[in-house]
């Protein structure tokens, strides 16, 4: 029997993440209706063809009207404005949340834009994804067993925070809480700087050597295939934390360079082992 917890969920921006939210809600039977909001008729056609929503519309107000939950899955710079428009049409008690990869700026901008509705907003970031984009790549199981980070503030309504836990956990995810600042520091180290490193390595690889590229190069540079404009905005929003993380990476690279210049095998092995141990700690 379906366990319907939400009568209407409005998903603003239906790409990989938004589409996977729609598929997960539908597959688990926890939403009576999933409405997707797009920017163009072409985007509506793509989400319909992928079957990720029940209704597709260009009208954000129409989608938000009567919604229990509004999820902004837009580029990070558009989250606050999308939620502010939705807040004008949705019920007073509706949960407003997002899926952005940065939190300090999104949370600050959303609180400022939402005014009296700010207590209904709970910032969120699903630690799940793929370098592929678009609703065609969406998966109903994308969030299963993955972590969703919530970033409530002193202004957050406790009832809205509970609804956020209920919503995100209904997709099969493990839900945790932290501050926007701690989130951004952590993601700079584990996501944003690795993306820069992957892109830099890919760009530094001479085209004529790609015939020799195998799984090591492909695995290391996989995320460099992500949307450049999307990642530009993420990096700029979290630029201070990313710069700190890049400084730490730069220092490590200089240590490797010095060990190579000195022919220092023990130092190289020690650093490689340290990296292996840190990677092994994550598990497979």
From TrEMBL:
Keywords: Oxidoreductase
Pfam families: PDH_C, PDH_N
InterPro entries (UniProt xref): 6-PGluconate_DH-like_C_sf, NAD(P)-bd_dom_sf, PDH_C, PDH_N, Preph/Arog_dehydrog, Prephen_DH
SUPFAM superfamilies in the record: 6-phosphogluconate dehydrogenase C-terminal domain-like (SSF48179), NAD(P)-binding Rossmann-fold domains (SSF51735)
GO MF, one example: prephenate dehydrogenase (NADP+) activity
BP GO annotations: tyrosine biosynthetic process
Signal peptide: none
Ranges for domain Prephenate/arogenate dehydrogenase: 7-284
Superkingdom assignment: Bacteria
UniProt keyword Amino-acid biosynthesis, yes or no: no
Protein name: Prephenate dehydrogenase
